[in-house]
Design goal:
Layout (H helix, E strand, L loop, with lengths): L8 H11 L11 H5 L20 E7 L16 H18 L3 E5 L9 H10 L4 E6 L11 E6 L6 H11 L14 H10 L2 H18 L5 E9 L11 E5 L6 H8 L1 H23 L2 H4 L1
Parallel strand pairs: 1-2, 1-3, 3-6, 4-5
Antiparallel strand pairs: 4-6
Helix pairs in contact: 3-9, 7-9
The protein binds zinc ion.
The site of zinc ion has 7 residues, from loops.
């Protein structure tokens, strides 16, 4: 692989170095952290439970923040607040189980560029990356949750528009920030390994299965497009639209703590299912 692309040094080196670790087994839950030199020992594992697997590190990414409010609902709700509140609830539930450690890309109302969010997941050597949103669509009648994975081409026009809006969040980053050019996006997409895509698709599938019974879903709820925030080369990543601010019913529901708890419960079930399958070795068969 040549390295004379016009891509940021951090991203290129990051992707190149990571590629040397991409043996198929590294995506088996539990092994990735153990196999990584310098990986932190689990913080909470008591000595008498040494045989228990260390907590899995999950990075949750509440969308938008700070000067970027995200979508603004029909009655004035900011997407950034709904995303953060629901991410806090999911973090609480995941950590209460004792099986996970959770890091947030932001724990307060602050702006973070999209590529930094990916960088945070890489720094923590996350085993999963879940970006949480509640955007707006042009059609106010459309409601329901949907799940997105990275794809070179958008699965449909609605998703293309959604990715365009999500990726344009970096317009808030100011003139110093160099956005991802189409060439760089293509290079990065090509670095996304098969195992990562398989893991992302499995998690998306698990999320559809978990959210479906308790929440309305869009038709064909598992979709894909070129979301910048999903471009970690070696971390299974999904973006969840928990509903749409452009729909009055969704907006009202997303404001309620009870509904946020329900979404978090469903998402936790999906994370549990993802790692349960990994434990059984299904991830290898993919
Ligand atoms: Zn969003």
């Amino acid at each position: 692989m040549t390295r004379n692309y016009t891509v940021s040094r951090r991203l290129l080196l990051g992707a190149g170095v990571k590629a040397t670790f991409l043996l198929p087994t590294t995506l088996i839950a539990g092994l990735a952290q153990a196999a990584t030199p310098g990986a932190e020992p689990p913080r909470h594992a008591p000595a008498h439970k040494a045989s228990r697997p260390p907590p899995r590190l999950v990075v949750l990414d509440p969308g938008h923040g700070g000067k970027d409010p995200g979508a603004i609902g029909v009655s004035g709700t900011y997407e950034k607040h709904v995303a953060l509140a629901t991410a806090f609830e999911l973090k609480r539930q995941l950590e209460a189980s004792g099986h996970y450690r959770v890091e947030l890309t932001r724990a307060r109302d602050v702006f973070i560029p999209l590529e930094h969010r990916v960088g945070i997941a890489e720094q923590h050597r996350a085993m999963l990356f879940v970006s949480m949103h509640a955007d707006a669509l042009t059609d106010p009648r459309v409601r329901g949750a949907s799940i997105y994975t990275l794809g070179a081409h958008a699965s449909d026009a609605q998703t293309r528009e959604l990715a365009r809006r999500e990726n344009s969040a970096d317009r808030f980053a100011g003139p110093d920030f160099q956005g991802t050019s189409p060439e760089v996006a293509q290079i990065l997409a090509s670095l996304v390994q098969h195992e990562t895509r398989v893991g992302s698709a499995r998690l998306a599938h698990d999320l559809v299965g978990a959210l479906g019974p308790s929440l309305p879903l869009l038709p064909n709820p598992a979709r894909h497009a070129g979301f910048v925030v999903l471009k970690a080369a070696d971390i299974p990543s999904v973006l969840v639209e928990m509903g749409f601010m452009s729909n009055r019913q969704d907006e009202a529901a997303l404001r309620r703590g009870q509904h946020q708890m329900q979404i978090a419960q469903a998402m936790k079930r999906a994370v549990d299912a993802y790692f349960a399958a990994a434990d059984q070795g299904l991830r290898v068969a993919g």
